[in-house]
Amino acid sequence: MNAELEELYQQVILDHSRRPRNKGDIPGAIHVHGDNPSCGDEIDLSVQFGPEGVVEDVKFTGAGCAISQASASMMTLKLKGKPRAEAEAMLRDFHDLVTTEVADPPKQLGDLRLLAGVRKFPQRVKCAMLAWRAFEQALQGAREPVTTEEAGS
Ligand code: ZN
Questions:
Q1: What is the distance in A from the centroid of ligand 1 to the CA of 8?
Q2: How far apart, in whole angstroms, are the C-alpha atoms of residue 15 and residue 124?
Q3: Ligand 1 centre from 127 Cα, in Å?
Q4: Which of 35, 70, 108, 118 suits a disulfide with 13, CB 3.0-4.6 Å?
């Protein structure tokens, strides 16, 4: 990747971490707290499922490194309005993206593809996956907190 592109990628990630989209709380929704102690990232995700499990609304609050907050912000943009099956597919695709060499990442991941570079840094994978682990938990309807420390990558 050339330096110019790399800078652009960083700008997108920094922009999301500084001005997170869908920041907030949804009263009465499923809440999952996630944390990544090795980096100090925390996230509180709320997910409102609609009829047939469609992701009606998703918001988060949190604090931590740019990767963890940008990943959460981009995730909410992508998941909002998605039918359950599509949201589950996106979770799998994103996990593959940050853990394995994917030659041609699925287009529907959009800007999330910018996070592919974290796969070279196992500690960063936990940052990038934090919000997604929380979402995975929300899909299961559980209210147990998640930690990417235990979940591994
Ligand atoms: Zn982090």
A1: 20
A2: 18
A3: 4
A4: 70
Residue 8 has pLDDT above 90, yes or no: no
Third-level CATH fold of 3-143: Sufe protein. Chain: A (3.90.1010)
If you measure from the C-alpha of residue 124 to the centroid of ligand 1, how many angstroms do you get, rounded to a whole number? Answer: 6
Side-chain-facing half-sphere of 21: CA atoms under 13 Å: 17
Q: Tell me if residue 90 falls in helix, strand or coil.
A: helix
pLDDT at 153: 47
Q: Domain residues of the chain, as ranges?
A: 3-143
Sole residue written with tokens 């589950």 = 88
Q: What is the pTM of this model?
A: 0.89
For residue range 91-138, list pLDDT tens digits in order: 999 999 999 988 889 999 999 999 998 998 889 999 999 999 999 999
Among 18, 66, 72, 19, which residue's Cα sits nearest to residue 46? 72
The Å distance, Cα 52 to ligand 1 centre, comes to 33
Contact 62, 21 (CB under 8 A): no
| Alpha-helical segments (H) within 50-147 | 66-79, 84-99, 122-139
66-79 helix and 3-18 helix, angle to the nearest 10 degrees: 80
* Token output for 97: 């993206």
